[in-house]
Amino acid sequence: MRTLRSILPFFLCCTLLLMSCTSEKKDQMAETETKPTLFNLLPPEESGVDFVNKVENQKNFNIFKYRNFYNGGGVAIGDINNDGLPDIYLTGNMVENKLYLNKGDLKFEDITLKAGVQGSKPWSTGVVMVDINQDGLLDIYVSNAGNMEGNNHDNDLYINNGDLTFTEKAAEYNLAKTGFSTHASFFDYDKDGDLDAYILNNSNIPVSSLGYAGQREVRAQDWEGVPDIFKGVGDMLLRNDNGKFVDVSESAGIYGSLIGFGLGVMITDINKDLYPDIYVSNDFYERDYLYINNQDGTFSEEIKDWTSHLSLSAMGIDMADINNDGHAEIFITDMLPEADERVKSVMEFDGYDVFRLKQDKDFYQQYIQNTLQLNNGNGSFSEIAYFSGVDATDWSWAGLIFDMDNDGFRDIFITNGINHDLTDLDFVDFFANEIIQKMALTGKKESIDSIINKMPIRPQPNYAYRNN
Question: Could you tell me which residues come within 8 angstroms of residue 65 by beta carbon, excluding any fewer than 6 positions away?
């Protein structure tokens, strides 16, 4: 039998060890609290940027009627008045867009109404600043979407007048394209000296079935068997012909995108042939697209030739050279949580039979994780997100690659979060089913607010990764 004397040294040792660990932890916390951070958060009162993209569920327009309800808006930064200071344009969903003029010293002035760029549609998404008419002044192109009644999806093009005002001329340039637009990129794909456009749209068909497999090459005007409410416009490549943008998507080899759930598009020269290529990240079951420029006005879609696997719910995308070898890498965000508890509470993974079915239907190998595609410089990528420690960042929207600390290596910043945790399994398995059963038994409909209020709200932090 052990005596108190025999075990006392053990307890003393453990106590001293715990005291030491506690002391070290306090020292580390104190060091963290006093150590200066790389960035400082400026409050709206100091910067003048007070934009809030507030969305509220309504009876006829809510997260159940429009699945991209919580996807958010966009931001573009550029010098609109050529004073050497970058200005900010922010898009809103249920609020007006905002343009902030940089006054210097990190002070901004809201000039939205004076500039006439508050937006003409009820739901704006992506935005890009581009000198569309090559007059030396940045113009603003705004993508619009939202599942509202009527034709409220035409995109806006604000031409810079040079006096801090803009004139909307999307129709004049043939850029007022109706669809569920997510974003746009302007680039000279045919190298004729002017800027062409790629318009990224998000298909409105249901995502609960694979019944539309094999439809990616069908043009929008030929979508048969699709209810009118789900019809829209697929991705478009528009060639700039003397200031008029002409749809050349089909002849150029761009998919019609009935099943294209595009959330991101980037332009870069992937294969170093001096011609710009296109990468499109698609949400849900559709795989991403990698369009390689054939240098003759056409593109070849080659994602399966270049990669071994992709992100399943591909969302934000950025391209940059992370290892300084002269080749662009690709970073795609997804929804895999870092914490095991979150994985178990919000994630559902495909069974083997469903995974193989998707492969048979040409949806390729897709996994729920961020992907970091390392460019090997030989026409292939090696996916290294797990190796690099950037694979799991929860419900991530956008990833931005840039050198945060000016050490010569590009780092990664990731923005996170969603208004309500739509994929929470307790809500899906218990509350949602209970509500459906109750409505079936009583014939009474639950209010939208009562249903949405049962969805948990769990804010997720952003992530910043330093390149070692």
Answer: 147
- Domain residue spans of the chain: 44-465
CATH number for region 44-465: 2.130.10
From the list 309, 212, 197, the residue with the least C-alpha distance to 252 is 197
Task: Determine how β-strand 371-375 pairs with β-strand 124-130.
Answer: unpaired
Contact of 143 with 74, CB cutoff 8 Å: yes
Type of residue found at 267: I
Report whether 225 contacts 277 (CB < 8 A): no
**Cβ-contact 387, 333 below 8 angstroms:** no
| Helix/strand/coil percentages in the chain, nearest 5 | 20, 25, 55
Other residues' Cβ atoms within 10 Å of the Cβ of residue 6: 9
According to DSSP, the residues that pair with 239 across neighbouring strands are 246
Determine the 3-state secondary structure of 434 from DSSP.
Answer: helix
Give the closest residue to 202 by CA, choosing from 232, 227, 164, 172: 232
- Mean pLDDT computed over 94-110: 97
Give the 3-state secondary structure of residue 54. coil
Cα gap 403→320, rounded to integer Å: 10
Q: How far apart are CA 301 and CA 293, in angstroms?
A: 9
- Both tokens of 291, joined, read 């369009």
The residue written with tokens 């945060």 in the block is 404
Could you read off the pLDDT of 339-397 as tens digits, one per residue? Answer: 888 888 888 888 888 888 888 888 999 999 999 999 999 999 999 999 999 999 999 99
Cβ atoms of 213 and 362 within 8 Å: the answer is: yes
